[in-house]
Design a protein that fits this description.
The structure is a single chain. This protein is of the alpha/beta class. The chain folds into three domains: about 120 residues, Alpha Horseshoe (Serine Threonine Protein Phosphatase 5, Tetratricopeptide repeat); about 180 residues, Response regulator (Rossmann fold, 3-Layer(aba) Sandwich); about 150 residues, Rossmann fold, CATH 3.40.50. Helix content is about 55%, strand content about 10%. The strands form four sheets. The chain has a five-stranded parallel sheet, with helices on both faces. Strands 7-6-8-9 form a four-stranded parallel sheet, sandwiched between helices.
Length: about 575
Amino acid sequence: MIRTTFCLLLLVFTAAAGRLQAQDDIVFHPQAEQLFLLGVRQYTQQEYKGAYQTLKQAADMQPAHQRTTASIVMAAKAANGAGLWEEAALLCTDMLERFPFSSYAEDAHYTLGVAMMGMGHGRAAAEQMVVVLGGAQTRITRWRAGELLEGLAEKFSPDEIRVLEARAADDTARVMLMLLRAEAYVRTGNADSASVLARALQALSADTKILKRAHRLISRTTASHAGDTLTVGVLVPFMNHLNVETREHQTSVAIVKGIREAVREYAADTSPAGSPVRLDVRDSQRSPEQIERIISEWRTDSTVVAILGPLFSDETMAAGAIANRARIPLVSPTATGNGIASIGDYVFQASPDYVMRGSLMAQYAVRTLGLRNLAVLTLEEPPGSLLASAFVAEVKRLGASVISVQHYPGGTSDFRHLFRAMKNDANAAKSDIQALYCPIASAADIGIVTSQIKVFDGTMVILGTDEWNDDEALDRTKMSADGVIFPSDRWDNGDSELISGLSLESFGYDAASLLVRCVTGTRDTRASLAHTLAGVREYDGVHAKISFTQRRVNSFLHILQYKNGFIKKISDIEYRQ
């Protein structure tokens, strides 16, 4: 990932430098080139303070050279990454004054907005995002600016948004701000003004997303909701300080999209007795320091009743510990690491962890399929080893037998020696192996593993893991993979017109839908909300049910099978003692 990010940054800034050089008589400075490349590498390795110093040195070199503007912008981004907000703002301001027509101007405006957010100047940050939204040529920059602007606008009054709207120089930005002002009117109980704006938007915009949200505003039947507005903090790794497309950013955007949809739907459907809910969306940056700072702010804000996120297990582990100490309920939509929810009574995992996933497949094998003699072929590194350990423990707890467990390192392509060892174990136990549980590293291993399993024993049932849920990989080895059974935490039953159960958005949508309805039931306190969440059983989500065990981990999975060239759902399973 670091190498990919470095190459993307280098490609972007090299291309733009070439355009700049063609337009102006720019001096080529070899030392500046070396410093710039070093600084970008430090930045991609998240050595932000070092990157800032290196890139600032390159930017300060005189006369102006082929990397001057690129170095200024990258130095500002590095300063943001290091939390040096004022230094970043000064660099961006200097860049925009000296090089107003640079191809990096949109990056400078965006980075300046991030710096203003870091300093707590929300309106100034929003002004920069309006500029980017209206004029940026790069799709990803416009996208990120829109997401940040939405999050900022949730804290603004309608009049504050109106000021931004008046300053917008582009119709795209102006229409978006009109929508945000209409939603702000709803938050303040002025449904009539919201309706007028929403109807105007229907005539002004052809954007389906804008039109859909405008229609929702019009369809609301209550002028206001009783009770005080409650806040749900959303903590996800947008990684906005990197300004390149990352896996974390893509996942975060999808999850937050689902969360926003759930909250909008709740607001449209809630009776006057319900409490309105707003979102406070923050960027965790996958940084423990950033996470601690944000949760500390939420801890002292009495309107914040819960946290949605983070998404990845490492950051969720850090956030869970802090949230539990602060006694703020935290629900991660996607974290699957073991031991996260066990941190304390305020931490919940809406996706089954590895212990639960392995245990559920064991219960399906023994209780549903009636198998008694099983074997395991597993990757020796996590998560394969964690899934295998849980599977073995549960099979034994249920009174069945695990005849053989064979481990292999990543990259293995020849399993014959492992199958020979498995056969020796079966002979020693004087039993036939009925099924083989096989946690693999990735879908790329499916063809290699299944072809050799069929040679070893064509009658065994193959039990897979989530990694087996790949129709293209299964199709490539259709004959040997036919009949394989594996779990999945997502399936589209066609119950929702808004969110597909197969999409990442569905994880955010389901977790948020569950949470806001629990918030309504508890009416405010964090402790009562944690108690209500702990009692959730079989909440019907779009991608799957959510059913918390005593460990506060979701205990539900779909069971899928690849048969005759198609993946189909054959069962659902929920953990039971």
